[in-house]
């Protein structure tokens, strides 16, 4: 089993890692947010760059990336531009998505990058990440429903085949047994197919149990909110840490 190690954070080993999103709209808000979320001692911070007002200005994006890096170091930084079709804040075209990701990777201000499975030229982006020494968290989100177990496992396997260091999927439950489907898919992926860390979650209030207990079934990290949640069902990172601690006391 491959472990993803960034300084003293080892994803895929020990207790699940807590990832806290940064949702600020500009540098000033982001710096304030960083001060606040540091109190929750996140293992990893995710910059949700689709929230940035000036996301279409590459110079601003690159400068903001290094400002965040300096304020956070040594906490590992995950860069995410979440597309609108997968629940993100802003619509950009495929060409700009790739250009944005490649520019940010070249700054070396980040440790991990989110690459959506269904974006165009995934292989090209993954290649650029490998060339820059940045870990790929490949992702897929379904805000409408929970696909069948076989489909969830297929998507996670496809991410692994495409060179993701960490495959990730977030799905929406309509009924409580949809959460079981997600957890069952997680367990099958982890025990039969995965040779690396994976991250899975079921969203909204019905899915909260998956964010707390996901590691029992094979998920290696979980998202907890800082100042603002980035998806439905995220609970505050401090509370999440306590609950995960309870699951790991015996
Ligand atoms: O992919 C994910 C997972 C997520 O959607 C969640 O449900 O916690 C939150 C996003 O910020 C992150 O990029």
Automatic annotation (TrEMBL):
It comes from the Bacteria. 3-dehydroquinate binds at residues 46-48, 82, 211, 230, 234. This is 3-dehydroquinate dehydratase. Involved in the third step of the chorismate pathway, which leads to the biosynthesis of aromatic amino acids. Catalyzes the cis-dehydration of 3-dehydroquinate (DHQ) and introduces the first double bond of the aromatic ring to yield 3-dehydroshikimate. InterPro entries: 3-dehydroquinate_DH_AS (IPR018508), Aldolase_TIM (IPR013785), DHquinase_I (IPR001381), Type-I_3-dehydroquinase (IPR050146). One of its GO terms (molecular function) is 3-dehydroquinate dehydratase activity. The active site is at 141 (proton donor/acceptor), 168 (schiff-base intermediate with substrate). Belongs to the type-I 3-dehydroquinase family.
């Amino acid at each position: 089993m491959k472990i993803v190690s960034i300084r003293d954070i080892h994803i895929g080993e020990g207790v699940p890692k807590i990832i806290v999103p940064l949702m600020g709209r500009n540098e000033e808000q982001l710096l304030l947010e960083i001060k606040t979320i540091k109190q929750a001692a996140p293992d990893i911070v995710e910059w949700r760059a689709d929230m940035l007002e000036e996301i279409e200005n590459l110079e601003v994006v690159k400068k903001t990336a290094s400002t965040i890096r300096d304020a956070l170091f040594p906490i590992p930084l995950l860069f995410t531009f979440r597309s609108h079709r997968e629940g993100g804040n802003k619509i950009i075209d495929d060409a700009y998505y790739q250009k944005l990701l490649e520019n940010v990777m070249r700054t070396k201000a980040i440790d991990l990058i989110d690459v959506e499975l269904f974006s165009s030229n995934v292989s090209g982006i993954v290649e650029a990440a490998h060339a820059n020494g940045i870990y790929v968290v490949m992702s897929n989100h379904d805000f409408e429903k929970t696909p069948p177990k076989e489909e969830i496992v297929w998507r996670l396997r496809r991410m692994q085949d495409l060179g993701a260091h960490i495959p990730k999927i977030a799905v929406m439950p309509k009924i409580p047994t949809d959460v079981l489907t997600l957890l069952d898919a997680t367990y099958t992926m982890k025990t039969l197919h995965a040779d690396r860390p994976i991250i899975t979650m079921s969203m909204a209030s019905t899915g909260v149990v998956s964010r707390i207990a996901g590691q029992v079934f094979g998920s290696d990290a979980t998202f907890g909110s800082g100042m603002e949640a980035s998806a439905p069902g995220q609970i505050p990172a401090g509370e999440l840490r306590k609950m995960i601690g309870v699951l790991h006391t015996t």
